Hints:
The protein is of the alpha/beta class. The protein has 7 helices and 19 strands.
Amino acid sequence: MDERYDVVVVGGGAAGLSGALTLARARRRVLVIDAGEPRNAPAGQIHNYLGREGTPPSQLLADGRGEVAGYGGEVVGGRVTGAERLDGGGFRVALDDGRTAAARRLLVTTGLVDELPDLPGVRELWGTDVLHCPYCHGWEVRDRAIGVLGGPMGLHQALLWRQWSDDVVLFPHTDRVLTAEEREQLAARGVTVVDGEVTGLETAAGRLAGIRMADGAVVARQALAVGTRMVARSDVLTSLGLAAEPLEMLGAEIGSFVAADPMGVTAVPGVWVAGNVTDLRAQVIVSAAAGLTAAAQINADLVAEDVRLAVEARSLAGAR
Ligand SMILES: Cc1cc2nc3c(=O)[nH]c(=O)nc-3n(C[C@H](O)[C@H](O)[C@H](O)COP(=O)(O)OP(=O)(O)OC[C@H]3O[C@@H](n4cnc5c(N)ncnc54)[C@H](O)[C@@H]3O)c2cc1C
């Protein structure tokens, strides 16, 4: 890690490894630093990734690390704590174990943290029976007894999950009161509404068995869809003056993201972002595609710099 890289990629999930693969194949010296906590780690399989349907998340990333290494890219474990701009151009990143690495450009693909609803049992079943995304898990729980926990997106989620099962219950919980029109929509689609506060989840043999209500009633359910607060992992960028911005939907704050253009260009020259850190909705294949897009832009930017430096060197040589 002592040498100066063309690009340091912070984060080795789908976005980071895809970016690194593109850069390594473009004959750039690239280093990936990864803390090893991809967002979908609790899930057994990746779905909706064409050609890799059902692959375990750890397998896809292991294959990706091997592909990056196959073209000369370096992938190391570690957690980056901050970055600084260097006099004369480029950046230096610092790791929490004291190591540092310098690069001409940075690609930050640190993902996001799902802040879960604060209810007993939710964390333990996250990614197995407590779910957030029907495109990731809907097929696996089709025709089962599905609950949807209220939140800003509760109504929308309940109507969406109804596509996968005709046994959907919406628990508005402490969310806003549903309008008569919304209740009509739910009733017309056969979605039951159970009013009252949810106090926790009931389990049997380690699986979800039901939703416990404040009045003591338990509503039998096999899966529970929840909305999470999706918070961009943006600490690395703070020292460069780049902060995450809040993202609002339906009048509620649902998380934060690092703003960038469609190519991943941030407000800080030389720093790109890709994947969930900037696009909270990005699935694995979308994150991988964003990593490739940003990497191609970074390479083009480096090519432009290489040309400028070569012209300067040539005219200096000619002047001598
Ligand atoms: C339970 C669950 C199941 C899911 N299932 C699916 C599915 O079936 N199909 C699908 O398409 N999508 C699925 N997703 C979404 C999927 O997880 C994301 O689309 C994907 O992980 C985004 O990739 P990424 O590279 O942006 O971030 P991540 O995969 O989260 O990777 C970010 C990496 O950066 C590292 N990192 C963070 N901070 C630092 C730091 N400071 N220094 C060094 N490294 C750092 C992290 O440890 C992590 O390894 C699921 C999500 C969840 C929560």
